[in-house]
Amino acid sequence: MFKFKKSIFFLILLIIISITYTGCSKKQAEPTSVEPISKEGVLLGTICKVTIYDESSRDVLEKAFKRISEIEDKMSINKDTSELINVNSKSGKEYVKVSSDTFDVIKKSLYYSELSKGKFDISIGPIVKLWNIGTDQARVPSDAEIKAKLPLVNYKNILLDEKNEKVMLREPGMIIDLGAIAKGYAADEVEKVLLENGVKHALINLGGNIYAMGPKPDNTKWRLGIQDPESTRGEYLGIIEVENKSVVTSGIYERYLEQNGKRYHHILDTHTGYPVSNSLVSVSIIADKSVDADGLSTSTFALGLEEGMKLIESLKNVDAIFVTSDHKVYVSSGLKGKLNITNSKYILQN
Questions:
Q1: Are residue 26 and residue 96 in the same domain, yes or no?
Q2: 202 is in an annotated binding site
Q3: Could you give the maximum distance between any two Cα atoms of the chain, in Å?
Q4: Residues of the chain with pLDDT under 70
Q5: Is residue 320 part of an annotated ligand binding site?
Q6: Shortest CA distance to 269 belongs to which of 146, 107, 158?
Q7: Is the residue at 186 inside a domain?
Q8: Residue 224 belongs to a domain with what CATH number?
């Protein structure tokens, strides 16, 4: 988790567009002359950027980035030390005390494991380490290597002591990897920091995990572009308008390994140990909380179009955009009439 590679800078999942202050809205807000302030840096293995559109100070941005750094220090498995590394190092041995941050993210992860029937599983760590996609050590492991590690992938062997906020991995060699959900949690925590410091209008972008805070300063919605899965240059297939929502995309173009003319993407099937293989090339989730959007983007991608759509339709205040390899776009019921397709290569199906 949290490995960084320069090439993914250009694989931004969502493009923020048309962020202007002038014009009328339904509330006829007065145009603002406040200049936005922003901070950018590399944390959680990706580019993080927070932009504030209110009168504020750079101290608030520093507080936001300090919070992201705290989360990385607790949940990374690629640093020298972290709470998660400590949990993994004692797999099969004992319960390990962790912070409320780490405990809450693990607990939320197990919820999505149950919801997705194991398609989302943070115990995928041993398989992730075999592939190392997105790092300089990326390779295609042998069938034997994968088969040897697959028995370690089982979220039901992650044990929680809720009273004492302790975690134990039942089997020796198990590895928790929170890379599919920690950025979402961090985005929600940044929102809390901004709210506590009087910010009402902001964009939080953690490597394509977007949280659009409030409406824009002129009371219109933020316009976000949904990445074209076949493009590596930040081109988009359509536009949605949101406020106080997180938009997170998982896709086969985000990180991948090419070997002998074949591409292997980074979303791994918890049952086979190989990249998920179905008709989908990307899924974008729109939800109130970024941690939910993050967990669901991986879950629904792994479930596939039919089962993924069923899951989304069963949840409140959650919507999704599914894109298939034949350029068809499917949206959940809450997005009917709200996705503006701008690339004629893609055809809206419903």
A1: no
A2: no
A3: 65
A4: 1-33, 232-233, 254
A5: no
A6: 146
A7: no
A8: 3.10.520.10
